[in-house]
Design brief:
- There is one protein chain.
- The chain has no helices and 17 strands.
- It is an all-beta fold.
- Strand 7 and strand 8 form a beta hairpin.
- It has a 4-stranded antiparallel β-sheet with strand order 3-4-5-6, with no helix packed on it.
- The structure holds calcium ion (CA) (4 copies).
- The site of one calcium ion (CA) has 8 residues, from strand 9.
Length: 204
């Protein structure tokens, strides 16, 4: 995994490698995990079952802070404070074991697997957002193997056992949450192999 630095000519010609994976790196997420205003990197290598957390130390250098292992073929990561301790945690969709795995931040940004929720078949993409307007972030997963999404409602300070399943069109690869029709209710957008679909919140 490497970063192309923007030089003064905007040609991004300087490539700096920070991590060499055994298998392919198939997922990247940029987020400031440790509240120092520098975006950090979460990268996933499904074939190694590994997630790598690299911290940005502010001068174009990323250092590997933590790597952790999933059961089988992790494919996507989302970030939220699951247990309300004001430290961000990482949620992984593990497409080989048909689970979502929650790695809690131990306070020093070491992430340990503490919770597992069952998904349908081959959860390929995970995201978080408030889908029922209660100001608590929920977890939503796209299952490429069963043509479905699972919505895990945050029912009580980080308890996600209440699961709703919705059928989708063929092969949902990727999922995101936002309010597409400006009705103040978040909607869910799903990317399939050849199309994009939106689930609008039914306010009736
Ligand atoms: Ca940071
Ligand atoms: Ca937390
Ligand atoms: Ca919610
Ligand atoms: Ca909406």
């Amino acid at each position: 995994m490497s970063v192309h630095l923007n030089n003064s000519h905007d040609d991004f010609s300087v490539q700096v490698t920070f991590y060499r994976a055994l298998g392919e790196v198939q997922f990247l997420k940029l987020i400031d995990l440790n509240n120092d205003y520098y975006l950090d990197i979460i990268a996933i290598c499904p074939f190694d079952s590994k997630t790598i957390v690299l911290f940005n130390i502010g001068n174009g250098t990323f250092i590997i802070h933590n790597t952790f292992t999933s059961d089988s073929f992790p494919h996507s990561a989302a970030v939220m404070d699951v247990n309300n301790d004001e430290k961000l945690d990482i949620i992984i969709s593990d497409s080989g074991s048909n689970n979502i795995e929650i790695f809690l931040n131990n306070g020093n940004y070491v992430f340990n697997k503490e919770l597992i929720y069952e998904a349908d078949i081959a959860p390929r993409s995970v995201t978080v957002g408030d889908v029922n307007n209660d100001d608590k972030l929920d977890i939503v997963v796209a299952n490429i193997g069963s043509d479905s999404i699972n919505i895990y409602l945050n029912t009580n300070n980080g308890d996600f056992h209440y699961k709703i399943t919705l059928p989708t069109n063929s092969e949902p690869f990727s999922i995101a949450i936002m309010d597409f029709n400006d009705d103040k209710q978040n909607d869910i957008v799903v990317a399939h192999r050849n199309e994009v679909g939106v689930f609008y919140t039914d306010c009736s």
